[in-house]
Amino acid sequence: CGRGARGSTMRRFVPSLLRAAQRKKISPLSSTLTKSLRAFSSLNDPTMLDPDYEYERLRTNVTTPEDAVNNILYNTPAVKRGPVQRRTICALVNNHPGVLVQVTGVLAARGFNINSLVVATTEVPDLSRMTITLNVKKGSNVSQAIKQLEGLVEVWAVLDYSETAVVERELLLIKMAHHPPGDDGSEDEVDQKMKRHAHRAAIKSLAEVFKAEVVDVGSQDLTIQLCGKSSRIDNFVKLMKPFGIVESSRSGAMAVPRSRISFEVESEDLKIEEDGVDVTMLPPG
Fold first, then answer.
1. Is residue 162's pLDDT more than 90?
2. How far is residue 92's CA from residue 129's CA, in Å, rounded to a whole number?
């Protein structure tokens, strides 16, 4: 099994379970757990630790403890800890010409590539709000770029929302072909029509799962609108790609901090009531 990351994961995972079971941190309900762990600790069985071990069967028919542990080990998505981090920056700037060039110039001078940038006026006509997302390498000095942005005359405030609880939304407009890839839509045979109908039904079913909606339909394609987090839109585009994407357009991420939920006023009122003394309960005199 030493042929891959899953084999090394197995070698680390099984001994830790055995040690935990020996320390009675895992309750030995019966010999089932012990047998399954011993089976996994036996690295001579290629069917147990093969990375391609009956993937489809494990997804649909888990009947033994060994299958259950294999399913957890092989089918749990790995946490992606890549060298690139996503940073979200919000800036309030004057609604004047040339401000966008100044902001992007500062980021470009620092070597940061802008993933998305959304600019629009706010409830105050003289102010514009910028939401900037950056893909930066770990260890990059983003704080220095933020300080440099704050030093610009046209900038009122700069906030880093990367570690803040925010409500983030992005709009996607994606145009999908009516016909499957490889079919130009010119033939009108019955089989081709049935394939196109099934193709459109599959696209609409997937859109309903993501709570997207069809906003335009033509003779050759249809346009779908989806509003959600950037990661959700990324997943939607990946799943739609095999169906044939004609074109797509994304607005970029917008973010505002989540509203606070505070019960401080109620707790203070409750404390005053508890601290109050009932005069009728005092002894005479």
1. no
2. 5
